[in-house]
Amino acid sequence: MHTEILSPVVALIAWTLVMLVWTMAVRLPALKKAGIDMSKASGGHPGILDGKIPDKAQWPAHNYIHLVEQPTLFYAVCFALALLGQGDGMNATIAWIYVGLRVLHSLVQATFNKISIRFLLFVLSTLALMALTLHAGIAILHDAPAPLVQNVASR
Length: 155
Hints:
Blueprint: H1 6-33, H2 55-67, H3 71-83, H4 89-111, H5 115-143, H6 146-154
Helix pairs in contact: 1-2, 1-4, 2-4, 3-5, 4-5
């Protein structure tokens, strides 16, 4: 198994946890300043605090949500590539590029939150994810038994 690709997986999980701590460090003081008593709060949904605490205090939380959405696909494709023996070389490099772009996206969103820059970083990271997915698909078809490949090709 080629496990080089698992390093960026662990790095992105660690970064997600950093964003969780950042969220708490910014949001808890903002809640206190806004007079929101957490011991009396119940229920809720994402965005419920929008407009109740400053936007800048919400940005890390919004980014944390983003880090538990699309990156789940990244984790899955990286594990697939590792299991397929394709988790090194170019695929590991693309995985590190994906992680770097997601970290940059986080830093932009949690600090000055310029949407045009965030969108560019999101698109670039999505292209990296698409490349990894394409490589996993090619590896599966390449290693598939001949009858399976023939059946897929004939459809």
